[in-house]
Amino acid sequence: MSLTCFAPFLFLSFILGCAARPFYPLPSKMSNQNRQPMQTSRPYNIAHRGSNGEIPEETAPAYMRAIEEGADFIETDILSSKDGVLICFHDVILDLTTDVANHKEFANRKRTYNVQGFNITGFFTVDFTLKELKKLRVKQRYNFRDEQYNGKFSIITFEEFISIALDAPRVVGIYPEIKNPVLINQHVKWPNGKRFEDKFVETLRKYGYKGSYMSKDWLEKPIFIQSFAPTSLVYISNLTNSPKIFLIDDVTMPTQDTNQSYWEITSDPYLDYIKEYVVGIGPWKDTVVPVKNNYLQPPTDLVARAHARDLQVHPYTYRNENMFLHLDFHQDPYVEYDYWLNKIGVDGLFTDFTESLHNFQEWTSPLSQKDSDSASKLVDKIALLISSYRKG
Ligand SMILES: *[C@@H]1O[C@H](CO)[C@@H](O)[C@H](O)[C@H]1NC(C)=O
Ligand SMILES: *[C@@H]1O[C@H](CO)[C@@H](O)[C@H](O)[C@H]1NC(C)=O
Ligand SMILES: *[C@@H]1O[C@H](CO)[C@@H](O)[C@H](O)[C@H]1NC(C)=O
After folding, report:
1. Start and end of every GP-PDE domain (predicted)?
2. Which residue puts its alpha carbon closest to atom 8 of ligand 1?
3. What ligand has the least distance to the C-alpha of 114?
């Protein structure tokens, strides 16, 4: 395992070595015994697809940047290759965020499949072996973001992702989504009749992820398992007691496996049912606070009803750019964080810009002494000084 888990770190320092910030020492030079624990006293900073506001999503450098910037959890989407290897990739097709179109050898792989009731045409991950996927390079989803890293980094496997979290210099949690389980189970077959969900949990077990929320095991290797598919979560809860989060989409989207509506899955009886299996919900933020003509409307009671059942609420997705900020926030992402953390009172946020959320939390609710010993605080201070000096 050593080479695969060191390689991303070496690679990053190679590619980004002259960038503005200091990098971590190699994992081999650190003792994992006395790593700083994860903070659990303030809402979680969940690095959505890594620091994908800066670096192409779900790549090793995007995750390492997020760790460097203060993420509590690194978030990822798990799909499968044709040969059954679990990979970190958001879309079921490769078209929008890789250079697959430039690979003549794959030109005949384009397919149309029915995905949750829609006919989607493109290059599906499930039609490529891992070896073939590794030939591709990832690019930014949005052309208004920094494109200098396009074409530099490859797709990583679930195991490589886990290694990045476990090799971090402090305890960093993982937040994997079991993505499109219906489609994956239709197209990929594993030996002995195993399902995608079995393979997913097997991988987590291999690296020691277990234990209920806040247990000793959990605090050593924190994890939230997330899914939009309630039957997958119920199935997985038979296999592991790791905490799970039920994702909730736009009000118009039915669930992918049970075809239930938003109204049904956010009703009191359904929250009573799902709370037996999950520790929280991950709603699209506009379903918590509806938006009209780009202005916020009065918040729904979803957070209050979830909290009444001891369910955490981790909304998605927070993005710094003007076009994503509703007008009430005066084009200021800090005003948006302030609203969600202090007015709505959520328990975690999925952000594309880990550093912004981290800075906001450090300025408004710095961690207490018990969470962060003075030695590491000193190190943080020095790092901050260095980075502000370099930025200046
Ligand atoms: C998808 O394609 C199939 C086969 O061409 C067609 O029968 C079906 O109506 C299409 N479904 C949608 C939702 O467009
Ligand atoms: C959970 O496991 C039990 C025992 O193996 C089985 O009877 C049950 O059907 C499983 N439930 C689900 C939802 O898979
Ligand atoms: C899902 O539910 C909608 C609305 O109830 C219905 O029109 C549609 O046919 C259902 N789809 C499936 C695949 O069952």
Report:
1. 43-361
2. 119
3. 1
